[in-house]
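anyone seen this seq b4? input:
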Amino acid sequence: MPNDLPELSRAEWLVMQACWEKRRATARDIHEEVSPRRGWEYQTVKTMLDRLTAKGYLKCGKVGPVCLFEPAVTRAKAIGRAIDTFKSTVLGDSLAPLFAHFTGGKSLSDEEIGSLRRLIEKHEED
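predicted toks r here
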């Protein structure tokens, strides 16, 4: 994934979530998915799809007169990019505040503790 992909707004994340779920969809399909949650008009969704295509997150192919949108970036890569940006701009490249926030005031399950241990061990091996 190119490092120069622009950040996504909250609204764009909502549209991308629908695109990842559908895998390949028309603007109408995506509108039907997101409109009940946001009340957006069809043209608003179409504009967002076009913007996401211009940003490099979606590909648009034509089948006759119909545009079919599909993700050009995987959900995992987009999430990783967002986390990396958050880590560097908000957390000063430290993950400790993130873990402190998520674990503050509540107990971690044995499964969660095991997952964190495995991640730390893997990081130490690398």
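The two ends are 22 Å apart (CA to CA). The longest strand covers residues 58-63. kinda curious what u guys think
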